[in-house]
Design a protein that fits this description.
Layout: E1 2-3, H1 5-14, E2 26-29, E3 35-38, E4 45-47, H2 53-59, E5 67-70, H3 73-77, H4 79-88, H5 109-114, E6 119-122, H6 125-129, H7 136-142, E7 147-149, H8 156-170, H9 174-195, E8 202-206, E9 216-218, H10 223-229, E10 233-234, E11 244-246, H11 249-255, E12 259-264, E13 277-278, H12 282-293, H13 302-305, E14 309-313, H14 322-333, H15 343-351, E15 360-361, E16 363-365
Parallel strand pairs: 4-5, 4-6, 6-7, 8-10, 8-12, 12-14
Antiparallel strand pairs: 1-15, 2-3, 9-11, 13-15, 14-16
Length: 370
């Protein structure tokens, strides 16, 4: 589905008109249940993972203006989003980098402390639940720097609302954050009500489809939560103990899922994989999708032969707008219950909160005939 750039650009610019909030002490609770108090809304934030701007840019009209530093993962994982931020906010080029925020070893504690931030935002992974050593919070606080742990990746259905609320309060954008939360919860509740009592078709999500050896997927959390929320059953949940991992092609073929869903992004362009995302044309997305479905091994799957195949933007996995992907997935799995639901309209409404336009082909469905 291609989203018109002009309309979403206007929607994104609309959030810039929001009134500023008066300075004063602010307090929030992060996803680890920690209380964070600041003497005033944060004005010098370090995002250990640059992609946390996906959320910050939904609640703050100029998120770049309050960044003291950020991780360098945007260049690799969301180059098109970074291009849009550079176009809208030229000051992006001057934001200091604090290393690769994907791992604790890649994140530079020394560089972060030297920047003198009034708040550091860490993901659950870096706070020690997945890859990190678990002491970054302690080390930063020992240096006198407040830390907030937020997350939209590992367990998004649990952590999205408290993460948004914490970011909103700590940046003085709590009114905008609560508006976004209301939108998010209304859409999620609508999906939950529609799937109540429905059967759960089996689903396989092929992550980074076509770009790497088959088959990367989600085990517990991440996209598994998308599938559950949309009324499906993830075949890989019983195969993988962690959040993500890889299963063998033979395991996939033996499981014969009812529905096959690929994720893609512009990071797969040079690898010959599924290309979806900001700025991607419908024709380019369709060409890459057709190529993927013609892969000899995959084409033997019954779901592909019978055209129960779909794809969505991989980076829905780390933004509050994953509600759009869940809605699209629910519509694919239960078309009779979602005939009047339009995920494109939901995205357009969500884009009203965004500091950048969210145009491009962000999801795709196979035609009835190959």
């Amino acid at each position: 589905m291609t989203i018109d750039r002009r309309s979403l650009l206007l929607a994104g610019l609309a959030c810039a008109a929001l009134p500023a909030h008066a300075a004063g002490p602010v307090t929030a609770t992060d996803v680890l249940g920690r209380n964070i108090s600041l003497p005033a809304p944060a004005k010098r934030i370090v995002l250990a993972q640059g992609r946390q701007i996906n959320a910050l840019g939904l609640i703050h009209p100029d998120p770049v203006s309050i960044l003291a530093g950020w991780g360098n993962d945007m260049e690799r994982q969301n180059a098109d989003g970074l291009t849009r931020y550079r176009a809208r906010f030229p000051a992006v080029k001057d934001i200091p980098l604090v290393g690769d925020g994907n791992t604790a070893n890649g994140f530079s504690l020394e560089r972060t402390v030297a920047l003198g931030p009034d708040l550091v935002v860490l993901s659950r992974s870096l706070a020690g639940t997945r890859r990190g050593p678990g002491d970054l919070v302690e080390k930063l606080e020992a240096a006198g720097i407040p830390v907030a742990v937020v997350d939209f990746f590992l367990e998004p259905l649990r952590d999205t609302v408290p993460s948004l609320r914490a970011l909103g309060r700590l940046t003085g954008q709590d009114v905008q954050a609560e508006k976004l939360i209301a939108f998010y919860e209304e859409r999620m509740q609508r999906v939950a009500a529609r799937i109540a009592g429905a059967g759960r078709p089996s689903v396989f999500i092929h992550a980074h489809a076509g770009g790497y050896d088959c088959c990367m997927t989600a085990g517990q959390g991440t996209f598994n939560e998308f599938i559950n929320a949309a009324g499906g059953r993830n075949i890989a949940a019983a195969m993988l103990p962690g959040a993500t991992g890889q299963i063998g092609l033979e395991q996939l073929l033996s499981a014969e899922p009812d529905v096959y869903v690929a994720t893609g992004g512009t990071h797969l362009t040079k690898l010959g994989g599924l290309v979806l995302g900001l700025g991607v044309s419908e024709s380019d997305a369709q060409a890459s999708f057709t190529k993927l479905l013609a892969t000899p091994a995959l084409s033997t799957l019954r779901a592909i032969r019978e055209r129960r195949v779909f794809g969505f933007w991989h980076l829905f996995n780390d933004t509050p707008l994953h509600v759009v992907a869940i809605e699209a997935l629910a519509k694919w799995l239960h078309p009779e219950r979602f005939a009047d639901v339009d995920p494109a309209a939901t995205l357009a409404e969500g884009a009203r909160f965004s500091a950048i336009p969210l145009d491009g082909t962000l999801w795709i469905a196979a035609s009835a005939k190959p």
